Amino acid sequence: MLIRKHREVEPVPYAEGIEKRVVLGPRQGTPTFVMRVFDVPPGASSPYHKHDWEHEVFVLSGSGAVITEANTTPIGPQDAIFVPCGELHCFKNTGVDILQFICLVPLCG
Fold first, then answer.
1. CA-to-CA distance for 67 and 53, rounded, in angstroms?
2. Distance between CA 92 and CA 5 in Å, rounded?
């Protein structure tokens, strides 16, 4: 078993102003999934993108929106979000505080 405090993991830049922490991944011995924590500053958003795998997101704090081709949906603390394979999406901070969320993705090739 391994227990880590996410704030003790060194952040890496993800997109303009956004920080990512890989809290659990292959370096920690995970065979199937990677768990990341993102900090998105006010006004910033992740790149609009899609990929060949699903991912699950859990919002810890802040407020924002998930933007897809179909719509823009507000998100906030305690929201759980499923993004299926191939869906164009991004996460935008629409609030005045950091939007922080956990993102879980499968360990792909």
1. 18
2. 25
**Helix, strand or coil, per DSSP, at residue 28:** helix
Q: Which residue type does 42 have?
A: P
This prediction has a pTM of 0.93
Residues near 8 by Cβ (< 8 Å), separated by ≥ 6? none
Long-range contacts of 72-81 (CB under 8 A, 24+ apart): 80/56, 81/56, 81/57
d(CA 47, CA 38): 13
Walk along the chain (109 residues) and give the pLDDT tens digit of each residue. Answer: 999 999 999 999 998 899 999 999 999 999 999 999 999 999 999 999 999 999 999 999 999 999 999 999 999 999 999 999 999 999 999 999 999 999 999 987 4
Q: Two tokens at 7?
A: 């704030």
Residues 53 and 85: beta-carbon distance below 8 Å: yes
